[in-house]
Design a protein that fits this description.
The chain is an alpha+beta fold. It folds into 2 domains: 15-82; 91-238, no CATH class. The protein contains 5 helices and 13 strands. A 5-stranded mixed sheet has the order 4-12-11-8-13, with helices on both faces. The protein has a 3-stranded antiparallel sheet with strand order 2-1-3, covered by helices on one side. It has a 3-stranded antiparallel sheet with strand order 5-6-7, covered by helices on one side. The longest helix is centred in the C-terminal third of the chain and has 19 residues, at 186-204. The protein starts with 14 loop residues before the first strand and ends in an 8-residue tail after the last helix. Residues 133-142 and 147-151 have low confidence and may be disordered.
């Protein structure tokens, strides 16, 4: 018998529950484990983290909402979303500029999304590492590739700017969308442009920038959830983190 084989993962139900951990309280880890259907040691890891993550799924909306209310009442702010309904609209940009204290996202069509610095709730500097040890995940983690480097795959990185509630859609600049059409080595150019964008954001609103270095599985992602980068961005756009972690 192969002891290294991973156990099968139960398919996700329709309604997901995501939780933002808070500082540890005196609550019982065993009680929370029972509530979430986890092993006590797994629940301790979830409660002790600082990144938002999906902790449960339910087949009925009222069950998911009931769990989210219980978690929120216990100081674990939680949200519910329907996997069959389109997520938050993210403005995927090819360029990001700073003009007069405003973040200006621009697409090739010249469509723009402007977020004033005063309206920013959170900025997430996301570096998403692959957990694959082979080439099979190349399509899932679709960072830019440099043909001159024999197909070298660069990890996904994204800058997500989330405005205060009611002030419009979040803007995203990522290594997948940034314009590198004039560069010989697109992977290197994309990484450089993302780093420059992060530095500009830190210079304008340093207290609101959160650096996150993580992998999808840490946040509760499963293969059936679709594109990993899009899924992780949706999680942070819905429930921005309060503290830096990576």
């Amino acid at each position: 018998m192969d002891s290294t084989r991973k156990p099968a993962v139960a398919p996700r139900a329709r309604f997901l529950v995501a939780m933002r951990p808070e500082a540890a309280t005196g609550e019982s880890a065993q009680e929370m484990a029972r509530l979430l259907g986890m092993k006590p040691e797994t629940a301790r890891d979830v409660l002790g983290g600082s990144l938002p993550r999906v902790v449960a799924s339910r087949s009925a909306l009222h069950e998911a909402e009931s769990l989210a209310r219980v978690l929120t009442a216990r100081g674990r702010e939680s949200i519910v979303w329907d996997r069959e309904v389109p997520g938050v609209s993210l403005f995927q940009a090819e360029r990001l500029m700073l003009e007069g204290g405003q973040f200006v996202f621009e697409q090739r069509s010249r469509a723009r999304r402007i977020i004033p610095a005063r309206d920013v709730q959170c900025i997430v500097d996301l570096r998403l590492r692959s957990e694959s040890h082979g080439a099979g995940k190349a399509a899932l983690f679709g960072g830019k590739t440099d043909s001159a480097e024999a197909g070298q795959q660069f990890p996904d990185r994204a800058l997500l700017i989330v405005p205060e509630p009611g002030l419009g859609d979040p803007g995203v600049l990522s290594t997948r969308t940034v314009d590198t059409s004039k560069d010989r080595f697109p992977g290197v150019a994309a990484s450089k442009l993302l780093q420059e964008a992060v530095m500009k954001a830190r210079a304008l609103v340093p207290a609101r920038v959160v650096e996150v270095r993580t992998s999808p599985a840490v946040l509760g992602y499963q293969d059936e959830d679709g594109d990993a980068l899009e899924w992780v961005l949706q999680l942070f756009a819905r429930l921005p983190p309060r503290t830096a972690a990576g």
